[in-house]
Amino acid sequence: MARNGHLVVHGDQAVARHFPERHPLKPGRPDAAIAHLVRAGIVGDGAIPVVAPSRASDADLRRVHAPAYLDVAQRLSLPGRDPRNLLVDPREATAFGFSPDGDNPPYLDMVEVGRHACGGVIDAARHVLGGGGIAFVPAAGANHHAKRARASGFGILNDAAVAIASLRAEGVRVAYVDLDVHHGDGVEEAFAADPSVLTISIHESTRYLFPGPPGGLHDCIGSGPGTGFAVNVPLAPWSDDTEWLGAFETIIPPLLEAFRPDVTVVQCGTDGYHADPLAHLLVGERAYVTAAARLRDLTGGRLVAIGGGGYDVAATARIWAAMFATFVGAKVPDEWTTGEPAQVPDGRTMARVAAENGINVAAVRRLVFPHHGLGLT
Asked: What is the pLDDT of residues 120-142, one digit of tens each?
């Protein structure tokens, strides 16, 4: 029986172990995070259990992804018993975002891996909605850029969006909070017109970082009936703990309290970490732990945590372990949050950072808060 009903959903079936070795997304991050939790006695025998993920169905996937895209992805990922299986027309593969030398190289069994990542998030959400405690799916989340008919940003099957769509099919009201340094564009796009899904992405501004503008800026707030339910908090490069947590606290708690979701999915990307090689924020371990504690309290524990980006592999594993420990109310070992401090730029640079962030955060409040009955004072 899970301690306090909490759960980890993880298995080798959901880990993309066949990316080329040169690819930035490394497969060992989820296993390393769980190993930290096992050594600390938080997960494992007599503690929070680890269960294998289910396999998402065709119907689950097709709520988010186009059939033609799924067909090409499947043909690109078939086992290589017959070499022709992997010889999809290069123009067709490229049209759907796949390229051997790009961000999204086809790899063996990638659709099966994606099905289990999607199924794991669905399992976790059903656990939470069924009265269980917090559930963690560390192998999911990095697919948040995947679109309806295009692989993008290392993402093939958008596990967060697939799980949210499954919940929406049953009338569940969902909040999605994306902490990744990159804009959570794929999840936002899937629900941009749905006022029963609140998506919030706090990220380095797309003016400076993938996936680029016009998405992810403060004036991207959803469409049609979903206007005001897509929220983007773009931050300037070199934003540190103070800037990141200040923007988080100004925007996210009021919106979650006003929206009152049945369940919240938190994408725990850690690539805002100051030593991450693919971005330019200066966030430290303790800021992620502070955010985790706040989200636990705001959601009353009705929370699904999934992985995400994070390309300093050792730091990502530590931070994920620290966040999950915080989510479930366990003590966080000191060594998980005592990495080298960020080297903060000079005062003039930080003043420019604060000014840009202040303008963006104020604009988000002005554009979004009235849609939720929130005042600006």
From this structure: 999 999 999 999 999 999 999 99
Residues 237, 239, 242, CA angle at the centre, nearest 5°? 175
pTM of the entire structure?
A: 0.96
The answer to whether the beta carbons of residues 266 and 125 sit under 8 Å apart is no
pLDDT band, residue 377 (cuts 50/70/90): confident
In the numeric block, which tokens belong to residue 161? 């969006």
Chain-centroid distance of CA 123 in Å reads: 16
Specify the DSSP class assigned to residue 32.
H
237 and 181 Cβ atoms separated by less than 8 Å? no
E strand or H helix that includes residue 266: strand 263-267
Tell me the domains of the chain and their CATH numbers: 3-62+109-372 (3.40.800.20)
Please state, in angstroms and rounded to a whole number, the distance separating the CA atoms of residues 191 and 229: 9
Strand pairing category for 174-178 and 7-9: unpaired
HEC profile for the chain? CCHHHCEEECCHHHCCCCCCCCCCCCCCHHHHHHHHHHHCCCECCCCECEECCCCCCHHHHHCCCCHHHHHHHHHHHCCCCCHHHHCCCHHHHHHCCCCCCCCCCCCCCHHHHHHHHHHHHHHHHHHHHCCCCCEEECCCCCCCCCECCECECCECCCHHHHHHHHHHCCCCCEEEEECCCCCCHHHHHHCCCCCCEEEEEEEECCCCCCCCCCCCCCCCCCCHHHCCCEEEEEECCCCEHHHHHHHHHHHHHHHHHHHCCCEEEEECCCCCECCCCCCCCEECHHHHHHHHHHHHHHHCCCEEEECCCCCCHHHHHHHHHHHHHHHCCCCCCHHHCCCCCCCCCCHHHHHHHHHHHHHHHHHHHHHHHHHHCCCCC
Mean pLDDT, rounded, for 192-201: 98
Peptide bond connecting 105 to the previous residue in cis, omega within 30 degrees of 0: no
Phi, psi of 265 (to 5 degrees): -105, 125
pLDDT tens figures, 155-169: 999 999 999 999 999
Catalytic residues: 145
Residues in the chain: 377
